[in-house]
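Supplementary Methods, section 5.1.

A reviewer requested that the exact input to the structure prediction be made available. We therefore reproduce it here, unchanged from the version used in the analyses.
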Amino acid sequence: MLIDIGANLTHSSFQNDLDDVLARARANGVAQLIVTGADAQGSRDALTLARKHPSVLYATAGMHPHHAKDFHGETEALLAELQTHKEVVAVGETGLDYNRNFSPRDAQLFAFERQLGLAVDCGKPAFLHQRDAHADFISCLDNVRDRIKRAVVHCFTGEKKELFDYLDRDFYIGITGWICDERRGAHLREVVKSIPADRLMLETDAPYLLPRDLKPMPSHRRNEPMYLPHICAEVARNRDEDNAVTAANATAAARRFFDLD
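The structure derived from this sequence is encoded cell-by-cell as follows.
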C-alpha cells in the first residue's frame, strides 16, 4: 500500500467528485494521503477533510511562498492553532520560489523563517517547497537544522548538487510525476538512484503534474492520487529495484516521517 505525501485535495477541481477520487485511490493501492495546506483557507479546509476521513487523510498547514505577501500575525496565529490538531502532521507547504516571484522575496523569506520557527516550536516536521532559490533556502534551513524535527523537500526537481545538499542535512525527498516527463524530468531518472531508501517518499501533487507518459492519457488532464502507483513504478525502474521494494520503503519512510497511525 502506498502513501501520497502531497495531494491538493482542497483544489476546486475535486469539489464535485472527491469521494470518487478517494475510492479510485484505494482501488489502486493508495491507502493514505496527506492533504496539502498552502494558504490560510486551504489549511483550514485540509484539516476539515482530514477530520471527515480519519486515518485515511491527514493535513499540513502552511503558507506557500506564492502567498507569502499575505502572511501576517493573524496568519501565524492560525497556523500555530492548526498545528495543535492531531490530524495536522506537518508545517507547510512553506519555502521559497524565485522562479515566479508571485510574492516579493523579502516577504517569502519572512514567511519561511516564521514557519520554520513554528516547526521548531510545535515539534512537527516541515513540508518544503523550493524553486530557483536554493542558496537562500539552505541558509534559512541551516539556522534551524539542529532544532527542527524532520524536513522533506517536496516535489524535488533539482540537480544532483541540490539533492546532495539536502541529503547531507538528513532531509527527506519527495518525488512526483515530474520523473515521468521525458523533457523536463530526464535528469531525475539518474539522480533518483542516489536517494537512500529510507528518505525517499512519493507524491502526486494532484491535481498538478499529471504524468506525461500515462496510457491512455485522461482527457480531463487532472492528476489524481490513483496515479501514484504509476509514479512508483517509474521510480523503481530507474533505481533498478523491484516495484514492491520501492513501494514498501517509500511507505515506511512516510509513516515514520509523519508519525502516521
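The radius of gyration is 17 Å. These observations are discussed further in the main text.
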